[in-house]
Specification:
mainly beta, ten-stranded mixed beta sheet, four-stranded antiparallel beta sheet
Length: about 300
């Protein structure tokens, strides 16, 4: 399979690439084409990258490599955790993201000074290695209340709603209609018709040496201010405020039997309700009798 792409890069005054917008990508039989691009000034450069599928498995070495892989994820040509993103952070540098485009960190003070003197309304939106998704790609039939909280490289399926406090990192996202009011960390995927409640969080793969990929299945609910360091299968509910790490001791009930297990031993289990006994403080898992169901009207997003 051939992967052909063409885009335009913004450069610093020293010629360093700040970002790349790939307006045209051919990924086998899949294609996006936003139209012709042309250079408007000396701080831009046309970028063309031709790959085969083996290049998806090699580490990232350049800014253009990084941006192409992030574009492939957000265009939903590849699934999260399916391509090699090693080298991503070392290839990207901090960039000042402004309403007038990306600016080199070493040049922002002069730009701000010029803006104040000339009253040209330059303002800084963020200082980060990653831009927000919607500066490059507008996903179809998706609602995002605060676009600054979704990074380029997020994978958002149709029917996804991300509320104001929802956050989606790169190489993470939703595999179907979903309500996101909490945090989807890097490497985490959420199944169709699942709900991440307000303030809820999922353990990603970027901090603490955690290599385990966390996923949430279909028709599951992670309650408000809850969190997980294990995967959930289909039809699971974690009650509000309960944080389950891999080492959490859980008493699991099934068919009248009970046993004490570490949460990591039941990672990915389906059909369970997780809660904390308010009398004893013990974490309990028992068969989930209620299936999470999203409001279909709320998630049409067309």
């Amino acid at each position: 399979m051939k992967i052909r792409s063409k885009g335009i890069a913004n450069k610093s005054s020293k010629g360093e690439l700040l970002d790349v917008y790939f307006s045209t990508i051919e990924f086998g039989e899949k294609k996006v084409d936003a139209g012709l691009i042309e250079i408007k000034n000396n701080f831009q450069q046309i970028i063309e990258v031709d790959w085969d599928e083996n290049d998806l498995e090699r580490p990232i070495e350049t800014v253009s490599d990084a941006y192409l892989k992030l574009h492939l994820l957000s265009n939903k040509f590849v699934l999260p955790n399916s391509i090699n993103l090693n080298g991503l952070f070392s290839s990207l540098t901090n960039v000042v993201w402004t309403n007038q485009g990306p600016i080199c960190v070493d040049e922002i003070n002069d730009k701000l000074h010029e803006s104040k003197i000339n009253k040209n309304n330059l303002y800084v939106r963020s200082l980060d290695k990653f831009p927000c998704l919607t500066d490059y790609i507008i996903p179809k039939n998706v609602r995002i209340a605060d676009a600054s909280r979704v990074r380029l490289g997020a994978y958002l399926s149709e029917g996804t709603t991300i509320m104001h406090e929802g956050f989606v990192n790169f190489n993470a996202g939703t595999l179907g209609p979903a309500m996101i009011e909490g945090r989807i960390s890097a490497g985490v995927t959420v199944g169709k018709n699942s709900d991440i409640g307000g303030g809820a969080s999922t353990m990603g793969t970027l901090s603490g040496g955690n290599d385990t990929k966390i996923s949430i299945g279909d028709n599951s609910l992670l309650g408000a201010n809850a969190g997980i360091g294990i995967s959930l299968g289909d039809n699971c509910t974690v009650e509000a405020g309960l944080y389950i790490t891999a080492g959490t001791k859980i008493t699991i009930f099934d068919d009248g039997e009970s046993k004490l297990v570490k949460a990591s031993e039941i990672s990915g289990i389906s059909g369970m309700l997780f809660l904390r006994d308010s009398s004893t403080g013990k974490v309990i898992a028992k068969p989930n009798k209620k299936i999470s169901d999203l409001n279909k009207e709320l998630h049409k997003n067309d």
